[in-house]
Amino acid sequence: MYEGRPQLNIPRTWLENFLDIASIALLIMGIMSLISDWAGIPDTVPTHFNAAGDPDGWGSKSNLWILIVMGVVTWLLLTVLEKYPHIYNYFNLTEENVERQYKNARMMINVMKNEILLFFVYMTWACSEVAKGVSEGLSVWVLPVFIVGITGSIAFFIVRSIKWK
Known about the structure:
This is DUF1648 domain-containing protein. With 165 residues, the protein is mostly helical. The protein is built from four helices and two strands; from the N terminus they run αββααα.
């Protein structure tokens, strides 16, 4: 299926490096915040929110670590996938555009992995804020903004790929 596709050694762009460094820095800040707030977080934290942003599921505060771990694991898996753009599905790959298409697809994975990590870090912080009583729930815009952000990013890179055929 992927036979015959060139496996190019394309250096990472400054934007890919910047996005990775920025999201890792925010991850570290989120972890440090969770550690420093740990004693002040009640034993029960929200684990689910309804469409209005109100918590409707509760669990142990250790669930906050699960959110962080899910974000990190997703980020790591997508980082590995990012290194193999020749295995992605393309519909207009030619010898003339292969490098451009690989860069575009790799950047799409990079943007998505960082958006997902930031969402998990944000949700960890938001759940701890609700548990501490600082906030009553999530804004109704949290999930739509995340979905529009991810969908918009994917659409942008697909449209760009089509234009570069």
